[in-house]
Known about the structure:
With about 240 residues, the chain is mainly alpha-helical. The protein has one domain. It is about 85% helix and about 0% strand. Helix 5 runs antiparallel to helix 7 (about 180-195). The chain is elongated, with a radius of gyration of 21 Å. The two termini are about 15 Å apart.
Amino acid sequence: MTSNPPNRRNELRLAAILSAVGIVLLVTGSRFHGGAQPQDLQAVSADYAANPHWHLVHLLQFLGLFAMLAGQMSLLSLIRERSDSSFAWVATFAAVVAACTYAANQAVDGAAIQYVSQAFVAAPEPERATVLRIAEAVRHVEQGLSGLAVFSWGLALLLACAAILLSRVFPLWLGWGALLPGAAQLASGISIYFVGFEHHRLGVLASLLCLVWTAAAAISMWREARAQSLIERLSPKSDGS
């Protein structure tokens, strides 16, 4: 019997830890975001402008999603290694696109949005309409990036669903479990891209589903790493003959 290389076990353990840490970072950052009506920039500008943790919040969110996607890509890497799955390869590419797009989105949301919100709040009354139009233009850049990031993550999850179900490297329930959050993220991404944050509750639901699936994936990867360790311990040692 041939055992799997030790570095695969270590990678799976690291991926599980990254996934768990990513959940904590994303939830923590979102907790201090503020702004209950993201669809109305004028209404939330005062909250955005006054938030002393704004930059840190978005850095935590970025690091959280980065860690979660890194964990997902490690899961897909093992599937590609064991099954040569085309779905896993494309899902990995979609996850990379999601991470890159989200990074650009957080640059806009984490710096530019607060700047224009502060400018709008501080603007004298005759200039507020003009400043608001500029702020809305920046907001639409964020809207496009956010929509594409969410859409890409949803696509990555749906492709991961297919890869898991067809390869059977991980439990089938994990594959079926990726279906609902993937579809929800896909729908949320399309909604954000075309109409903005009008249906932000759909985005909240999709994010919660993704957090649950990521936690489940972390548990599965940790169990797989433990199983690989057990297989190596039980495998006969080669004497080189």
